[in-house]
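Kindly inspect the following:
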Amino acid sequence: MDETKELKIEGQAKSAAGMKAIFISLKQIFGVMSIRKSFKVLNKLNQKEGVDCPGCAWPDPDHRSKLGEYCENGVKAIAEEAMDQTAGPEFFAKYSIDEMKAQSDYWLGQQGRLTHPMVLRPGEKHYVPISWDETNKIIGDELRALDSPHEAAFYTSGRTSNEAAFLYQLFVRMYGTNNLPDCSNMCHESSGVALSKTVGIGKGSVTLDDLYKSELILIFGQNPATNHPRMLTSLEKAKKNGAKIVSINPMKEAGLLRFKNPQTVKGIIGGGTEISDLYLQLRINEDVALLKAVMMKLFKIAETRPEVLDTEFISGKTAGFDDFKSDLLTNDLASLVLRTGLDESDIDELVSLIADRKKIIACWGMGLTQHVNGVDNIQEVVNLLLMKGSIGKEGAGTCPVRGHSNVQGDRTMGIAERPSKELLNKISENFGFKPPQEHGYSVVDAITAMYEKKVKVFLGMGGNFLSAAPDTYYTAEALSNCSLTAHISTKLNRSHLTHGKTALILPSMGRTDRYMKNGKSQFVTVENSMGVVQTTQGVLRPPSEFVESEPIIVANIAKATLDQDKVDWDFLIEDYGNIRDIIEKTIAGFENYNERVKQPLGFELPNGPRIGKFTTPNKKANFTINKMLTEKLDSDEFIMMTTRSHDQFNTTIYGLDDRYRGVYNGRMVVFMNEEDVANRGLKKGDKVTLYNNYGNRKREVEGFAVVPYNIPKGCLATYFPEANPLVPVDLIAHSSHTPSSKSVRVKIRA
């Protein structure tokens, strides 16, 4: 893709997928891989005993399509990971740090797979090759030289396998800290906190089959066509089975309007399937106001139709209902409606849909979680489901839709800065040492600690920490304060270029790479968004003989760092089944792990709320009282949310187009309501600066092109990571510390 082309702004698409998605997918993968290699991996993608997609965590159906069990962005993820192009020693000899910094994130990703361990020594401008033994020694020496284990932070991305994640957290805790920030801190941490408090488990309660049996599906703050495209197939099936779907999102998104399934005649030559029966374009972060208005109206209906509420469920399975109801009814309904920016008639239509149905599923993405009141948002969703008795029954429940392909598995494996006592006790029992008890640093805490020079070593396993994190310039300075930054990576990214005194790049295998040990092809395991654990096994030759698997990298770092005889790291990596044996002894729900995971469909982890058993301290599902934000915007302020383009997955940029939103050849854009554009004397394509001032710290980014768009007045949308410098590091959700990337106050200067 040519980055020199001018930005082009066209009209918004009215549907998602279709034949165009097939064409673009194949063009993307054939542009970077041979046809033979492409089909070799695509034929195995998301198939039983195949390769789990390195993209999103949407679950696989029991019956897999023979035409292909993948989506457009899944193909792009494969193309990005398995491209033929490589970035080896010759590349790093050619380009200095400063030269690479001047390039775009897209350009960096297009340079190819990393092939050799590389080191950037103090004062040097080029990474140079280094042996694995030297790499491990540098890390081990740096970690042992620290005054305290808490002076190191160990980050994890959500693509890491269960096996690698378990070894990583075991090593870190043997080293002596719980500083295990991970990508979940930046996305669904609010979901985990809210669900743990209300129903007893920090993950969703539904299965894929529940979606097909649901009567009503509520989708909050989520764009499936871009972020979880295979979900559209599930929604289409739910619609066919009679479900109604309501989308609640500030922006009109093509995939929530109409889906043209490229594997059906209707999707290829017909009009496709209308997804949303009702689309509510809510003002940014007014979900609590909407839900309170809905629930007040439900209580009013229940005065004459008591069956609207599940009173038996409420009295038998929940706690806190009376206090919740009393608080709710103190609100002024008219004020709530006004806050939403919606017509009351649209809210009444939503109320009618909810009142007449009992099997209700609530799905949500980061549009609910990434706010100061992100935990409150999810708790209010749970309140509605509890009123309806829509948890713990077939076709009903909670459905947080996770992004990274194994972010849920990482957390299950113990990647957590606030580990449970149960986990720590099991580790102590099984491995003969007392793990640290004090809570460690989350992502934002780790950034602040690096900035304040309290953390001096940063080790990241996967991901692109700098581009994912808030407050980009602050985070960059924080990383540069470290004595050592080391990244376990498959591809070059921005984090490699903002470094500590010494920097290391450790090239790792990807999901598609085949790993052989003693003549045996090894597999690893992952957990999808609905709690199913399954295998994934690569089919392609790794890009070089110097690339290692994540479990091996972790084990070798542990051996170079720790002076202990509690864990035989060499034995564990001799066969990955050995790792699964110790996981089985440590993590609840993994009994007979090695055998159960070989089943074609894997196995489901225990989930109390799924069957109506709540594992909260009081063994009840808890109603909560949630407050709305009282913060008011100045007359010249907007509320901004960051979002992804269609050619993007998390921080990975696949291309420069967002065809569903009508944006081509560029990413520096700001979506604005047409009236706001006119009122500010602006027009389409005008360049503006976005800026704000939180805590007397001025932040601004220049060069955003104005895109008039169907978004509520007073609301803006921008892409991340481009707009991340505007997100203050300390603007975080209460209790979860999730960055508030979806509700940032900004001003505009032409």
Remarks:
- Residues 189-400 form a domain with the Dimethylsulfoxide Reductase; domain 2 fold (CATH 3.40.228.10).
